[in-house]
Amino acid sequence: MAIVMPLIAALIVLFGLIRGVPVFDSFMLGVRDGARTLKMIAPTILGLVFAVTLLKTSGAVDVICSAVKPVADALGFPSEIVPMALLRPVSGSGSSALLIQVYKDCGADSFAGRVASVIAGSSETTFYATAMYFGCVRVKRIRHTLVAALAADFTAMAVSVIAVRLYFGYNL
Fold first, then answer.
1. What is the pLDDT of residues 10-56, one digit of tens each?
2. Mean of the per-residue pLDDT values for the chain?
3. 172 vs 61: CA distance, rounded Å
4. Angle CA 164–167–172, to nearest 5
5. Mapping DSSP to helix (H, G, I), strand (E, B) and coil, where does residue 137 land?
């Protein structure tokens, strides 16, 4: 399996040479464009990473989770996955780590594990995607997109609970 990527790269270079494309020059042009894109989006991504780290280390995430858990319990949302659900729109890797923790604590086949899995598969890292894509094209006014995307994330979370209850026969 380790040979697959080098083989693909060799095939691309070979195809380019056969077609008469200046392969190295095209590669360098792509690298320059990528570096320019990185230069445009790096401040936005660094700001997002800083904000997530600040929220985690300050304990703000724990305070928010503590405030949301009683509401989640009342609505039938598994309180074990509240931290993952809150972090999902912000950080994909952070929410994946919390998903694994839900699996360890509750089990992958538990109600909480199944709902967490559906949320992970049906929601987006909204703030990251918005920062990345809008930062790349330098769009400043994102409020309508952000509201719509967060509404979609909230819908995914609510429907995840309903879907798991219906599909696996948990009581509504």
1. 999 999 999 999 999 999 999 999 898 888 778 877 877 787 778 77
2. 87
3. 29
4. 65
5. coil
